[in-house]
Amino acid sequence: MFNLFGKKDEETGEVKKQALTNTLGIDLGTLNTVVAKPSGDKFDLYKIPSVVAAKKEEPTCVLAVGEEAKSMLGRTPEDIIAVRPLRKGVIESIAQAEALLVYAMEQGSNDNVESIDRIVVGIPGDASEVEKRAVKDIGKKAGANYVLVISEGLSAAIGSGLPIADASGTMVIDLGAGSSDIVVISLGGITDIETIRNGGDDVDQNIVDMVKDLYKVEIGIHEAEKAKIEIGMVHSKKELEILKTSAIGKSMETNKPKKVEIDSKLVADAAEPIIVKLIEALSHVLERMSPELISGVYNKTVVVGGTSQLKGLKERIFEEVGVPVEISDDPMTVVAKGAAIVAAEPRALEPEVRLKAMK
Ligand SMILES: Nc1ncnc2c1ncn2[C@@H]1O[C@H](COP(=O)(O)OP(=O)(O)OP(=O)(O)O)[C@@H](O)[C@H]1O
Ligand SMILES: [Mg+2]
Question: Per-residue pLDDT tens for 108-154?
Fold first, then answer.
């Protein structure tokens, strides 16, 4: 048996147990940062909007993080900016990403960041070495002794309790706000990965643009997201009920507030370019896949991430690429949970270790 938290005395060979370390799993997302802290056989979860408010003249001077900063988005006085430190899954501002990570660690440790020994952070699968290093450096600067970065997709697979150690293969599709990962896993490792830097954010932007063209009304990006979440679907052969909702924007003709109607078909049209890219990426992955892995993937592919909740997605993916997929019933926290499992048990990544998937 291995001892995860023990140190072997070189002379006597005796394994000395250390106090169980404080560990956290963190999904540093474009829209949401989720912290998972193992607690018995469950997790304590903290969801933080990935938004930081800072002084305009001095962007390293952070004024608010998370919920408080989110409420300032688009509504800040002139000398304050509220921004998302990550765009398309990539860190745009190191100082602000650091503030976000420190805040996440504070939340997860009850304001006792010094007590945190190990954090595991999920980042996009195609992150460059520079991006990985940046996250590691930020984690260390924020106070963690040991920082491991892993692909969000692998983390999602572990968090979903998928049989990642099996040779038969399994696939995870993570549709986030800024980026989407397709990850094929076998024997505990990633055998193929494809990332597109598109996600739910692009759907929101397309809704804004389409409403502008159609009604000559400008709606805010949050109104667009709200409508998408309420009535969103993607085009598929399945007959889905067309739902309707409304949004209030600014008429470009009169400059007055104007209510417009948005229906599920408009959202599906807005999502279409992203869905087409996803299908293309999936086709590439399947093209490269060995026949040995195909059957495992056919039997076990899970879709996670907030954008996986668009109705009709499961059907569309099957129609296009012939892979039956399961939409996760816990799409927005599995990456953090998987990272927390790895943080508590780094050998979870090794093939011979059977995972005890925590709920
Ligand atoms: N019910 C829903 N239907 C459709 N989209 C949704 C729903 N709920 C959330 N979303 C969208 O999911 C996205 C957020 O998902 P998630 O939290 O997985 O992203 P993230 O991890 O922050 O981003 P990334 O992984 O790209 O860095 C947003 O675009 C949000 O609008
Ligand atoms: Mg994500």
Answer: 988 888 888 899 999 887 788 888 898 899 888 888 889 999 988 88
CA of 304 relative to ligand 1 center, distance in Å: 9
Rounded Cα distance, 347 and 6, in Å: 13
Q: Where are the beta strands (DSSP E) in the chain?
A: 6-8, 15-17, 22-28, 32-39, 42-49, 52-55, 62-65, 80-83, 86-87, 90-91, 116-123, 146-151, 170-175, 180-186, 189-196, 217-218, 244-251, 257-263, 301-304, 326-327
pTM assigned to the model: 0.87
Q: How far is the CA of 196 from the centre of ligand 2 (A)?
A: 12
Determine which residue's CA is closest to atom 1 belonging to ligand 1. 229
| Residue 168 CB-half CA count within 13 A | 10
Q: Relative to the alpha carbon of 222, which ligand is closest?
A: 1
Q: Which domains does the chain have, with CATH numbers?
A: 6-156+334-349 (3.30.420.40), 164-328 (3.30.420.40)
Mean pLDDT for all residues in the chain: 88
